[in-house]
Each structure stands twice: as C-alpha cells, then as structure tokens.
Specification:
Number of strands: 2
Number of helices: 5
Strand order of the largest sheet: 1-2
Strand content: under 5%
Largest sheet: 2 strands, antiparallel
Helix content: over 70%
Distance between the termini: 67 Å
C-alpha cells in the first residue's frame, strides 16, 4: 500500500479552486448581463404599455374626429347645394349686372320681379356662402386633426414595432444567457463534485495507508513479543537443562570454596612456608576462620571474587566463619 501523494492532491485542489474562481467570475458577469437585459426588457414593456395607452387614446380621438368630420361633410354638402358662385365677389358682380339691367332697361313687371327675386336670392346666397366657408374651414380643421392623429397613430405603430424588435432581441439574449448560466452552474457543480471526490479518495487512501501502517506496527510488535517469548522460553529451557545437569549441592559447595579462598587470602602471610597439602583444609581454632584451599586446588571461580593476574590466588576474598 502506497502513501497518498499529498502534494499532488493539494495541486489538484488548487487547480480546481482556480477553475472555480474563473467560473464564479463568469457566472457573476452572466448574472450582471442578465440583470441589465431584464431591466431593459422591463423598461421596454413599460414603454409599450404607455404607447398602448396613448395609442388607445389616439384611436378614440381619431374615431371622434372622423365622426365629426363626417357630420361636417354632410353639412357642407347641404349648404353647398344652395351656392351658385364660389366667392362674394362673383355674387356682387352678378348683383350689379342685374341691377344695371333693371336700371337700364324697361322690363315688364313680371320680368322685373323675377330679376329682383334673383338679386335677393344672390344676396341670400352670400350668407350661405359665408356659412359654407365657415363649415368648410371647420371641416378643414377636422381633417387636419385627422391627419395629425393618423400621423401620431403611425408613430405609435413604428415605436411599437421598434420596441417589439428590441424586445425580441433582448428575449433572445436572455434565453442564450440563461442557457450559458445553466451551463456555468453545471460546470461549477461538477467542479465541486470533483473536489469532493478528490478529498474523499485522498481520505480513503490516507485511512487505508494509516491502517496499513498500524497493521504493520502491530505485526512487528507481535513478532518482537513472539521473539521475546521464544527467547524467554529458550532461556528457561537452558536453565532447566543446567539444573538437571548440575551436581547436588553444587551452589553450596561453590559458596564454601569461595569462603575458604577468602579466608586463605586473609591468612595468606602466615601460611606461605607451608605446603599446599598441609594447609589446604586446616581449620584454625584460635582465629575461628576457615582457610580456603590454595590456588592450585581451586576448581573454578565463583564469579563473585576479584581475580588478578599478578596474584598467586584467584580470589581476594575471605569471610569469617561466624558470619556463615
């Protein structure tokens, strides 16, 4: 089991963080563009609503003016039927001609009455002409109002068409930006999922590696303990074998020999002239000490004496018999 590469893991996490920062910045720009376009779209809708209200008012005014103009046309046509001449000057000229004929010629009474009646009719036609001109001026004013209202209606149509075109363009932009925003969100979610996956895999590898190390340490500890137990068992076995091979009272004999050597060393100066056989096992009653055998008679060191290569004996110890 290999240890997880923490450096590579951190590099991958840093790369994801860089990509997340770029995606978040792109998301912020798209959201800002969406906000601007939606504000523009709301403004356009408000303008369309205002134009719609104004257009309805224009339609109502135009409908009213059309009805008034139609009535005025009927009045003008009715008054126009009683008009012979189009101007007062023509009427005055005709009146003067008729008056000149009456004054110049001698007509019969019936003919003269007819001419007088014509003169009166022409004079009355002057009032009809004035009324006609007044009605015609009013009709012209109504027609001018119709023209202005129709132009205003056409302007409303053009503005509505332009606003609808801008609205369609903004809706297309908003739809594209919404798709882009959805893609960016999906990419951000995927990056977060990748990060969670990397962290989970790293933790899983780290946990598995730590478990492996713990298992390895435990196994090594078990081996050490087993080796210690085996060594202890081997040592116990050797001790048991040594005990089985040992002579009876060997430890007590070794201790007695050690004490004898110690006592001989204490009395070594007084027994130099005697031979080893003479004082090897002699007991001194006066000193109450046990003399150890000579160096030549010593079988082995007990391990408790201090041996010197320059001395005649292997032990430098002696123990009083009273202390045994």
């Amino acid at each position: 089991v290999k240890a997880p590469n923490k450096k590579r893991h951190e590099e991958q996490i840093d790369e994801i963080h860089v990509l997340l920062a770029l995606k978040e910045e792109n998301k912020r720009k798209v959201l800002e563009a969406l906000r601007v376009d939606r504000d523009l779209l709301t403004n356009i809708r408000n303008q369309k609503e205002e134009i719609h209200v104004n257009k309805n008012a224009v339609f109502e005014k135009l409908d009213f003016v059309n009805k008034e103009a139609q009535k005025m046309i009927e009045k003008v046509q009715k008054v126009r039927g009683g008009i012979v001449y189009q101007t007062e000057l023509e009427i005055d000229q005709q009146i003067r001609k008729l008056e000149y004929q009456i004054n110049k010629n001698n007509f019969k009474v019936a003919e003269e009455r007819r001419i007088v009646s014509e003169i009166n009719r022409l004079k009355r036609s002057k009032n009809s002409l004035r009324e006609y001109n007044t009605l015609k001026a009013e009709l012209d004013e109504l027609r001018n109002r119709q023209r202005l209202l129709r132009e205003e209606r056409e302007v409303s149509y053009r503005e509505t068409k332009d606003l609808r075109r801008r609205e369609d363009f903004l809706r297309t932009n908003i739809r594209d930006q919404s798709k882009e925003l959805d893609n960016v969100k999906r990419e951000i979610d995927q990056l977060w999922a990748d990060k969670r996956g990397l962290v989970a895999r790293f933790r899983e590898q780290d946990t598995r590696f730590r478990s492996y190390l713990k298992h390895k340490r435990d196994e090594q500890h078990r081996k050490i303990m087993q080796e210690k137990e085996n060594a202890a068992a081997e040592e116990r076995k050797e001790l048991e074998e040594l005990k089985a091979m040992r002579e009876p009272h060997q430890e007590e004999k070794a201790l007695i020999k050690l004490l004898i050597n110690y006592c001989e060393n204490l009395l070594g100066g007084s027994s130099l002239n005697s031979t080893p056989s003479e004082h090897s096992h002699t007991l001194s009653l006066d000193s109450n000490l046990l003399f150890p055998p000579s160096c030549s008679d010593r079988r082995r060191s007990s391990g408790f004496s201090s041996y010197s290569a320059t001395s005649d004996c292997s032990s430098m110890y002696a123990t009083p018999l009273g202390e045994l």
